[in-house]
Specification:
heterodimer; A: alpha+beta; three-stranded antiparallel β-sheet; 4 helices; 5 strands; B: 328 residues; mainly alpha
């Protein structure tokens, strides 16, 4: 009885000291969090941010052939492909690729349905804004501006 | 000089020491909140406050300004006089014990013959403040917090007294300077290790620090007795808590860790020994912070079992053994 009493004290005291050791070790080891606005880490390649147009590697601006498959496939109706017919060219060309990101749920059906792999998930995650209008992108315009 | 001679020197001494004490309580709270947040951060492998000033050292000053400028909201159904009185009642008893704390041989406001008894008597008022706050708030969480505070403080007052008594038996004096002077050869932590541990654990419980923070248990009682307080009303409770932490640590330093005696003497020892005192007190305070961020909160029956089944019997036995050895 009295033996158990002292045993409990010693076992308890020892485990308390072990606990202090654990926190002390953690306190002197380097920090693992990132100070976000000042330091950034690379995002994973699988990240799904808003879609973007793939630039054409073989000359020309874009891979997109303005077929409109993505517009038809989008379940939320947030893509609008605006085309125009140019003189002396066969088929249509893209004049604006409008994305309403407020409705987009990043399902990826547009990326899958694209016959030319002309759209991909970008990794722009810093998209905070005070206004809803800032999320109506014209992706073609953006691609041109970036060049 | 004529102007100064109008006042008796004792009067000037009182004014200067009270200004220093009140300033020190505020500075101590600012330092301790910063240290607490930094240490908590590093224990959780994150940097803690980093935004205001280099490494966030101005963060607590900004927080203090925010607390001072906030509106004091008084709910409609509270007992108004008691509600406003409680923060002051909690803050004042944390100022008064500083009068007898010996920072060094010359740096002490007053060396009362009953220094320890004075501190214990004053700091017991703190419980009354918590009870008044909980009762006046007209809120079940506040009342629960206050009830817990009272039963916890009554339980842990006993082992504190018993462990202090075993030191007093050895020194034959209640005066703080006398107890420090008795330790110029050997610190009492080596002669009375059990009393030190008992005192430190009970001191944690007396200041309502985690793992004994049941009166303000966030996850159970929102904020316990200060649920209804906002702005500086809450700020005064906070200052009082950090003041009490400092007092508990400095009593531990005076009684067990040799007060202002250091491992080697400093030049102008009567004044510079304050450095040794501060190093010891802040080491204990940092240990308290680390304990807070290490252990989970105890349940209420565990808390009272700890007091009545472990600390009190152990300290009584320790006191008896001390008495026998002193008598021999």
């Amino acid at each position: 009885m009295i033996k158990d009493y002292f045993k409990e004290i010693f076992i308890g005291g020892k485990s308390l000291l072990v606990g202090l050791g654990v926190t002390f070790k953690a306190a002197i080891s380097p920090i693992v969090t990132v100070q976000y606005p000042r330091e950034k880490i690379d995002v994973t390649p699988n990240i799904r941010c808003h879609i973007d147009l793939v630039p054409n590697p073989h000359g020309g601006d874009i891979q997109c052939i303005a077929c409109g498959m993505c517009e038809r496939a989008c379940p939320s109706g947030c893509i609008e492909v605006i085309t125009q017919k140019k003189e002396g060219e066969k088929g249509k060309t893209l004049s604006a690729f409008k994305l309403d990101f407020t409705k987009c749920s990043l399902c990826g059906i547009c990326v899958e349905s694209c016959p030319k792999d002309a759209i991909y998930f970008s990794n722009e995650y810093e998209l905070a804004s005070f206004s809803k209008d800032d999320f109506h992108f014209d992706l073609l315009q953006r691609l041109k501006e970036r060049k | 000089m004529d102007f100064l001679s109008l006042f008796p020197p004792e009067f000037i001494r009182i004014i200067i020491s009270s200004i220093i004490i009140v300033t020190f309580i505020f500075v101590n709270a600012i330092i301790m909140v910063y240290l607490e947040r930094k240490i908590a951060g590093h224990i959780q492998r994150r940097p803690g406050p980093m935004e205001v000033g280099p490494h966030g050292i101005l963060q607590t000053i900004i927080d203090g300004i925010k607390l001072i400028t906030k509106q004091l909201i008084i709910p409609t159904d509270v007992n108004k006089p008691l509600f406003r009185l409680a923060p002051l009642l909690s803050f004042t008893p944390s100022i008064l014990p500083f009068i007898v704390i010996p920072f060094s041989k010359s740096f002490q406001a007053r060396d009362l013959d009953l220094g320890i008894v004075f501190i214990l008597a004053i700091s017991a008022i703190n419980v009354l403040a918590l009870l008044v706050a909980g009762w006046a708030s007209d809120n079940k969480y506040s009342l629960f917090g206050a009830m817990r505070a009272v039963s916890q403080n009554i339980a842990f007052e006993v082992p504190i007294l018993l462990s202090i008594l075993s030191v007093v038996l050895m020194t034959n004096t209640f005066s703080m300077q006398g107890i420090v002077a008795a330790q110029n050869k050997i610190w009492f932590v080596l002669l009375q290790p059990i009393a030190f541990i008992v005192y430190f654990i009970s001191g944690l419980a007396e200041t309502n620090r985690a793992p004994f923070d049941l009166p303000e248990a966030e996850s159970e009682l929102t904020a316990g007795f200060h649920t209804e307080y906002s702005g500086m009303g809450f700020g005064l409770f906070f200052l009082g808590e950090y003041g009490n932490m400092f007092i508990v640590s400095s009593i531990a330093t005076v009684l067990f860790l040799g007060g202002w005696h250091g491992p080697f003497p400093l030049p102008f020892g009567d004044f510079t020994n304050i450095i040794w005192f501060m190093i010891k007190v802040y080491a204990l305070l940092i240990l308290m912070v680390q304990i807070r961020w290490t252990y989970p909160r105890v349940r209420f029956d565990q808390l009272l079992n700890l007091a009545w089944k472990y600390l009190i019997p152990i300290s009584i036995v320790n006191l008896l053994i001390t008495a026998v050895i002193v008598k021999l």
